[in-house]
Write a structure and sequence with these properties.
Blueprint: H1 2-11, H2 16-25, H3 36-41, H4 47-57, H5 63-75, H6 79-90, H7 98-104, H8 110-120, H9 127-134, H10 142-151, E1 173-176, H11 179-183, E2 191-196, H12 212-229, E3 230-240, E4 243-245, E5 255-257, H13 259-269, E6 272-281, H14 292-297, E7 309-317, H15 323-328, H16 332-338, E8 349-351, H17 366-376, E9 382-385, H18 392-399, E10 403-407, H19 411-421, E11 429-432, H20 433-441
Parallel strand pairs: 1-10, 1-11, 2-3, 2-9, 6-8, 9-10
Antiparallel strand pairs: 3-7, 4-5, 6-7
Length: 444
């Protein structure tokens, strides 16, 4: 069979399509079969043909074949073909090629470096190989850095409590006080899920900051502390949108602040891994009209669309443990009870009507809270909102068999939450910061 294929390849050497079909027909190769045709195909003008030729050469083994692949790596210009050279060599598991693989670690193409790392990991217990790989642990490419971190990670400090554990002192608590001061009273890895909508920057009557920078630094401090108290590999979900601060007079223009994008930058720096961007779509009739002027004059440069969307940005506490690890920490009964059996949203655009409250001017819709809790936590988990607002998130948590922990600095909102949750016949507590501090100091 092989002789027939070889003959057909030679007859149709310049026909890339036919040559590829023939090359892919070849299965296992005995070392007795001549490899000359594959060597010739290394010079073929078609990249995919060269790749298939290299794959077949890799089935042989032996010094001559391996040295030929190394030589071709250095003369080849296409990244994909070069990576196949490394892959075919790596499958030989020949320690004599370690020097070649380690030299490739200095390549400028991160994909080529990653392929060399895969080949070297076969020998990662060898001291020389280990030292060579550890030398690139601060590589500028984030994927390379992560691979090295995972392969040579230090054992994570074991939490004294099981992953699903919830401190009884934190169950169904609302604290009327500063969120950062409150979080400092919590142990590491106390919270399973955080969902919040930070206060608007000077765009509502309940938040005032001397500068946008001060506002961002405040939020960064909150999310750094949230990171500390979040359990390994669990989620932070932030609802934000750009805000418009009205103009001072007709001589000035209003200013729009890109809050979601500025927050994203520091979250990524501070140990959160970006997972998803979900768009909350609201009816156009529910938002402020910005397009009115353009409707009248139709003049270019004056177009300002009505803002009907907000961002639901999904982050995960950076970890080397896969999501499966998190799931396996729960009993089968909890996993089964937590499954989302009803209809669920399949896209990242969630059409949800906004909600209004007699006290709070920016309220989470119940449906939004329900989705986040169901999709990102398990029954009996502890879920957290650092800016408790009107308490909708806490109420959703109770309805979905989770425990809540929340902070809210505004007294009016704090009492609104107390009023909203009064109908629930469960053990819940409402503390000032000092009261909460005393509560946490008490022995169980």
């Amino acid at each position: 069979m092989f002789e027939t294929i070889e003959e057909d390849i030679r007859l149709n050497f310049d026909n890339a399509k036919k040559t590829l079909l023939n090359l892919k027909k070849i299965g296992k190769i005995d070392n007795d079969f001549p490899y000359d045709i594959f060597m010739e195909l290394l010079e073929h003008k078609n990249r995919d043909v060269r790749i298939e030729a290299i794959k077949n050469l890799g089935k042989y083994g032996g010094d001559y074949i391996e040295e030929s692949l190394i030589q071709h790596f250095y003369t080849e210009t296409d990244s994909l073909v070069k990576r196949e050279c490394i892959s075919s060599l790596g499958r030989q598991r020949n320690y004599q090629r370690v020097t070649f693989f380690t030299s490739v670690l200095q390549d400028k193409d991160p994909k080529i470096v990653l392929q060399a790392i895969r080949a070297l990991l076969v020998f990662k217990n060898d001291e020389f190989v280990k030292n060579e790989l550890l030398q690139i642990k601060e590589h500028p490419n984030e994927m390379i850095k992560e691979v090295i971190e995972i392969e040579f990670k230090e054992k994570r400090k074991k939490n004294i409590h099981h992953h699903s554990f919830v401190n009884p002192k934190l169950k169904n608590i609302i604290v009327n006080g500063d969120v950062i001061d409150t979080l400092k009273l919590l142990d590491e890895e106390s919270i399973h899920l955080t969902f919040t909508s930070p206060p608007y920057y000077n765009a509502r009557d309940y938040s005032f900051y001397s500068s946008y920078q001060e506002y961002l630094e405040f939020l960064r401090s909150v999310f750094k502390e949230t990171h500390r108290v979040t359990k390994n590999g669990r989620f932070l979900i932030v609802n934000t949108s750009p805000v418009i601060v009205p103009r001072v007079s007709r001589k000035h223009s209003s200013k729009r602040y890109p809050i979601p994008f500025d927050i994203h930058n520091f979250l990524m720096q501070d140990g959160w891994e970006f997972i998803d961007d979900i768009i909350w779509k609201k009816p156009e009739t529910s938002v402020k009209n910005r397009i009115g002027g353009f409707i009248q004059h139709r003049k270019p440069l004056g177009y300002k669309p009505n803002c009907t969307t907000e961002y639901i940005m999904v982050y995960r506490k950076k970890t080397h443990d896969l999501l499966d690890w998190n799931i396996k920490q729960y009993d089968k009964d909890i996993v089964e009870r937590s499954k989302v059996h009803e209809k669920f949203e399949t896209s990242n655009v969630w059409s949800i009507d906004p909600t209004f409250d007699k006290i709070h001017s920016a309220v989470f819709p119940k449906e939004l809270c329900d989705r986040v809790i169901k999709y990102y936590s398990y029954v009996d988990d502890l879920v957290f909102d650092p800016f408790g607002g009107s308490g909708t998130f806490a109420e959703s948590a109770l309805n979905l068999n989770r425990s809540f922990f929340s902070t809210e600095i505004n007294k009016d909102y704090f009492f609104r939450i107390k009023e909203k949750l009064s109908k629930y016949n469960i053990n819940k507590k409402f503390f000032t910061l000092k009261e909460f501090q005393k509560w946490m100091q008490q022995e169980n």
